[in-house]
Amino acid sequence: MNFDFSDEQKALQIEVQRFLSDRSGLSVARAVLNDSSMSHSEAVWQQMLDLGWAGIAIPEPYGGVGLGYLELCTMAHELGRSLAPVPFSSTVYQFSEAVLRGGDEAQRQAVLAGVAAGATVGTLAFAEGLGFPVPGRIKLRFEKGRLHGEKWPVPDAMIANAAVVLAANERNEPCLCLVDLAQDGVQRRSLDSIDPTRKQGVLVFEGAESQPLGEAGDGAWAVFRAVLDAAAVLFAFEQVGGAEACLQSAIDFATERHAFGRPIASFQAIKHKLADVYVGNQLALSNAYFGAWALASGSDELPLAAAVARVSATEAYEHAAAENVQVHGGMGFTWEADCHLFLRRSRSLALLIGDLGMWKKQITAEFERKVA
Questions:
Q1: 3.30.360.10, 1.10.540.10, 3.90.220.20, 3.40.140.20: which CATH number matches 7-116?
Q2: Which of 107, 116, 170, 172 is the 20 to 30 Å CA partner of 50?
Q3: What tens digit of pLDDT does each residue of 216-273 get?
Q4: pTM for this structure?
């Protein structure tokens, strides 16, 4: 079985890499970091929309390009490498995926065309502070077509104009709701986060009008978990891309930096660090490929493959980002060095759709299910 991308998909990845290298280098991420008034890079985001990136995996009947998850994985890989400060993941990995999986035909037609055309920035709002929501303990209420409560942290909450929200109905059943955020019943507050290049916020719902997305109960929860599984695979590719960028940054610095008359890359301690990072990155990439296959093929292996990819990529990115700082030595932790940009992103992505403990439990549960 060949888990590699096709020549066409590799060609797409090269084009995405070229675009991001030219238009969204680390200076763009740093500009957003340094300017608290900037939520994202509007110029880069608009250029992505002009190229049709937001609709890359949306089927053609809904106004999209009609490519698949594998093409989206190649894009995610490069987005992670560049640290592009844009609302791509919240809109494409989470919001669009939730509408595709949970919405009816009318909702898909109405919503996804807006995403593909670049008119809609979306997000998925499920967290309610610390911890991961479980059925029966969801605080946000959906009653008589209106939402009451709050969600936080929500990625790109300050700029999104639509959201899919996890709530509980009158029977305390989990449900997914589609809500227009540009209404009086929605209030927003920004949150300080470790990675200001992808900002987060609080969404407060005070009787906001909403519509159910699919059926409530076990069906809604199954859709929600499937959306997270898909997002886990795509974020895994972002994390691998970031980890690879960290390794390359460390190699470049170690080759240029001299001590005792020779490059520090020639010292065994540095070689071991770089080799360990490389091994972790390759393992994470292999697991990400497995996740991509399961996602693209609709395999029932997806919950396991997604969890394995998520855990492996999270650990690889954390290790690579930390070792990059170490290889850069006394300047590695300073604001002027770029190392902290990757460390921030690695820590942020590690918590965005549930922490490592949650995904490790999913691995255990999937193995137990297989042997039961």
A1: 1.10.540.10
A2: 107
A3: 999 999 999 999 999 999 999 999 999 999 999 999 999 999 999 999 999 999 999 9
A4: 0.97
Print the SS3 string covering the chain: CCCCCCHHHHHHHHHHHHHHHHHCCHHHHHHHHHCCCCCCCHHHHHHHHHCCHHHCCCCHHHCCCCCCHHHHHHHHHHHHHHCCCCCHHHHHHHHHHHHHHHCCHHHHHHHHHHHHCCCCCEEEECCECCCCCCCCCCCCEEECCEEEEEEEEEECCCCCCEEEEEEECCCCCEEEEEEECCCCCEEEEEECCCCCCCCEEEEEEEEEEEEECCCCCHHHHHHHHHHHHHHHHHHHHHHHHHHHHHHHHHHHHHHHCEECCEEHHHCHHHHHHHHHHHHHHHHHHHHHHHHHHHHHHCCCCHHHHHHHHHHHHHHHHHHHHHHHHHHCHHHCCCCCCCHHHHHHHHHHHHHHCECHHHHHHHHHHHHHHHHC
The whole-angstrom separation of Cα 370 and Cα 15 is 40
CATH 2.40.110.10 fits 122-215, yes or no: yes
Specify the pLDDT at position 330: 86
Express as a percent the part of the chain with pLDDT over 70. 99
